[in-house]
């Protein structure tokens, strides 16, 4: 089942075209790896789908009623954007209030789902990078969104932490989530991505099944864009 469709989406920042007439379809229960050089438009793509940036032209279409859109999408930016003075539970209580969620049970379940302990009172600023990234994922998952948008989730992670994130992505995909992952580390999603999309200068050059050698080459030396 189609979860998200993009129809001729263009996003301009002044005279600069971050996205140029991008059309694509994303299905439920599939993971899409998004590659491209720095400035290719990958992060802008996620922000447009998340509703954080309005297309200059074209449209993004979701399945289901539009009034439930905010609850159906989860987004993790390249920066973790956590409140460092707060614990994991305190962070989720704050962000949960934005969705009208007040039950500690839901926050605790989201924290456990990413392999963290909800009883840990340590401030988020004292977490390792891997723990911070997992807490950001818990924040994304607490309202059980259908479409998950991950911008560089493997950035600055060690091998073990990156492997844990990959396993979580696989689990979420198998639960029927639609997952878009912007990354320059193709090897971390090689075994979980069902499709790969290659962007360049705001254009979608090609969409392929899985990840091939060309995708791996395109991802080397890339950065969030």
Describe this structure in words.
By secondary structure, the protein is of the alpha/beta class. The protein has one domain: 3-Layer(aba) Sandwich (Rossmann fold). Helices cover 31% and strands 28% of the residues. The chain contains 7 helices and 9 strands. It has a 6-stranded mixed sheet, with helices on both faces. Strands 2-1-4 form a 3-stranded antiparallel sheet, with helices on one face. The longest helix has 16 residues, at 159-174. The model has no long low-confidence stretch (mean pLDDT 90).
Give a short summary of the structure.
The protein is of the alpha/beta class and 225 residues long. The protein is 31% helix and 28% strand. The protein has a single domain, classed as Rossmann fold, CATH 3.40.50.300.
What sequence of helices (H) and strands (E) makes up the elements? Answer: EEEHEHEHHHEHEEEH
CATH architecture: 3-Layer(aba) Sandwich
Main β-sheet description: 6 strands, mixed
**Uncertain parts:** none
Helix content: 25-40%
SS field, number of helical segments: 7
Q: Which radius of gyration do the C-alpha atoms yield?
A: 17 Å
Which class best fits the helix and strand makeup? alpha/beta
Main sheet: strand order? 5-6-7-3-8-9
């Amino acid at each position: 089942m189609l979860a998200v469709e993009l129809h001729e989406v263009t996003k301009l920042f002044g005279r600069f075209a971050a996205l140029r007439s991008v059309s694509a379809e994303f299905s439920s229960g599939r993971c899409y790896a998004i590659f491209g050089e720095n400035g290719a438009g990958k992060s802008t793509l996620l922000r447009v789908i998340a509703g954080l940036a309005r297309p200059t032209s074209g449209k993004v279409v979701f399945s289901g009623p539009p009034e439930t859109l905010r609850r159906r999408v989860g987004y993790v930016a390249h920066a973790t954007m956590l409140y460092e003075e707060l614990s994991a539970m305190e962070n989720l209580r704050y962000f949960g209030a934005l969705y009208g969620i007040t039950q500690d049970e839901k926050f605790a379940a989201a924290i456990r789902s990413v392999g963290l302990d909800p009883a840990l009172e340590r401030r988020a600023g004292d977490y390792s990078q891997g723990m911070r990234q997992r807490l950001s994922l818990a924040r994304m998952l607490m309202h059980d969104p259908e479409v998950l948008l991950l911008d560089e989730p493997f950035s600055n992670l060690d091998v073990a932490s990156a492997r844990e994130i990959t396993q979580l992505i696989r689990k979420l995909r198998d639960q029927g989530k639609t997952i878009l992952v912007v990354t320059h580390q193709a090897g971390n999603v090689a075994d979980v991505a069902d499709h790969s999309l290659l962007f360049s200068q705001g254009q979608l050059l090609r969409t392929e099944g899985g990840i091939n050698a060309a995708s791996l080459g395109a991802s080397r030396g890339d950065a969030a864009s």
